[in-house]
Specification:
Layout: E1 5-7, E2 10-12, E3 18-23, E4 31-39, E5 46-52, E6 57-59, E7 67-71, E8 78-82, E9 91-99, E10 105-107, E11 111-115
Parallel strand pairs: 2-11
Antiparallel strand pairs: 1-3, 3-8, 4-5, 4-9, 5-6, 7-8, 9-10, 9-11
């Protein structure tokens, strides 16, 4: 089972910023969509933001204006810049990608984001 590699989670105060990064374990992967989901305790996993290989991005309403998703020039890495973080942004964040040729789903193991004073 191939897992994406995530980094950048942690503890931050309300109003602070974090940057999440995600990449495949090897450079042999190409994706048609990459994105981030999150799951808070007792809640369902929800979409945060996605970006296609052509650069089209999509955000959940609560992320608009605060989060920015971007992909690397190789189109197989993705970064989520999170600003003006709120306590309700606290969750485990999961990187997700869809293989460009296979159409398979790939997930990362999750990285914890905690927003607390």
């Amino acid at each position: 089972q191939v897992q994406l590699v995530e980094s950048g989670g942690g503890l931050v105060q309300p109003g602070g910023s974090l940057r999440l990064s995600c990449a495949p374990p090897r450079n042999t992967f190409t994706f048609k969509v990459m994105g981030w989901y999150r799951q808070a305790p007792g809640k369902q996993r929800e979409l945060v933001a996605t970006i296609t290989a052509s650069g089209t991005s999509n955000y959940t309403d609560s992320a608009k204006g605060r989060f920015t998703i971007s992909s690397g020039s190789d189109k197989n890495t993705v970064v989520l810049q999170m600003n003006s973080l709120l306590p309700e942004d606290s969750a485990v964040y999961y990187c997700h990608a869809i293989g460009a040729i296979s159409g398979r789903d790939y997930w990362g193991p999750g990285t914890q984001v905690t927003v607390s004073s």
